[in-house]
Amino acid sequence: MSRPTGRVLTLLELLQSGGTRTIAELAERLGVDGRTVRRYVDHLIDLDVPVEAVRGRYGGYRLGPGHRLPPLMLGEDEAVAVLLGLVAGRRTGLTTATATAGETAAAKIRRVLPRPLAARVDAVLESLAFTEPAGESAAPDAGILLTLADAVRHRRPVAIRYTDREGRRGDRTLHPQGVVAHAGRWYVTGRDPGIGEDRTFRLDRVADARLLPGSFEAIEGPDPARRVLSGFATAPYRHEVTLRIRGTAEQIRTRLPASVASVTALPGTGSPSPAPEPAHAREPDRSDTSEASEASEASEASDDPPWLRVEVRAERLDWLPPVLAALDLPFVVERPDELRELVVALADRFARRARRS
Q: So what's the pLDDT on residue 133?
């Protein structure tokens, strides 16, 4: 590579670092005079790199928007950061382009890395392991993502063509509030103006999106991420579970996050009514009654946290008893009876195994 060509590439890298660079600054960094800097700028413009001249006392040159992506100059640390980001994004299912686009982008960067640095990157990739399983291949179309993001920024209505989980296709109108990445998938959330309700759509199920005329006012309430999580917790499922748990919301959220359960305060702070005693339970004697009364008074005098109502919607119930056991907090199953039976069965299994010598 000739020295002038190398300086032109260095000039491009300086401009890509951001801001306006004065001619004097560029001349000093390149080791040339001002006239040569202008000539190098002309070379970049001939290559369709959008270099803009800024007039005034603090004027100089800066990069502007162009009709295509210009050559991108990356430092070694930047190249490694982009490469590892592509690998992690593909592995977790959070890439915003097709798998082919991610692979070709990573391959282009990998090919131009200096050999010593490439060897070190290979060592990282070979030794890298993930604790979570690979994300599903459900990346959204990049064009649809960009359209929706533009609609969110400028509060523009958008028409989408959507396929629901039952395979039904239809056209929807949405006032989008935000785009959310969660658990390896991308979602758009907003208000459906036709029914006046919040809706959340998976981006990989959106076949087309186009901006509509007009604008809309921002919706008051939770941020987009909270809207998506609360939507998961209240979506219709096979089982509707209602619990009362004595503890703080923070304790409950360690095992039942916002995407799984809703947690609300109960009126008053008293204990919930106890479950009915089985018919074969023995009657307590006077000493039992006295001890129970003292324990109750001690509990009421203490600063125990209040009882909270926890609602869960789930397709299966078998995972809930171990979660409740792991919480290790007082709880009452209000519904369904099937869950109460599963909890009792788990407790019996624990008791039998604990008694084994």
A: 65
Say what angle helices 3-16 and 23-30 make with each other, to 10 degrees: 130
Q: Is 18 helix (H, G, I), strand (E, B) or coil?
A: coil
Q: 215 φ, ψ to 5°?
A: -150, 175
Q: How many CB atoms lie within 10 A of CB 157?
A: 18
The strands making up 197-202's β-sheet, listed across from edge to edge, are 197-202, 185-192, 169-182, 158-163, 206-211
Residue 262 dihedral angles phi and psi, to the nearest 5°: -105, 140
**317 pLDDT tier (thresholds 50, 70, 90):** very high
Tokens representing residue 274 in the block: 């106890």
Residue 67 banded pLDDT, cuts 50, 70, 90: low
Nearest to 238 by CA among 320, 141, 352: 320
Structure tokens, 109: 């960067």
| Contact (Cβ atoms closer than 8 angstroms) between residue 234 and residue 195 | no
Closest CA relative to residue 179, chosen from 218, 151, 208: 151
DSSP assignment letter at 98: -
pTM confidence score:
0.54
Concatenate the DSSP letters of all residues of 117-138 into one string: HHHHHHHHHHH---SSPPPPS-
Tokens of 203: 């981006």
List Cβ neighbours of 115 (8 Å cut-off, separation of 6 or more).
Answer: none
Q: At what angle do helices 34-46 and 3-16 cross, to 10 degrees?
A: 80
- Strand ranges in the chain using DSSP code E only, listed in sequence order: 51-54, 60-63, 158-163, 169-182, 185-192, 197-202, 206-211, 239-246, 261-265, 307-314, 331-335
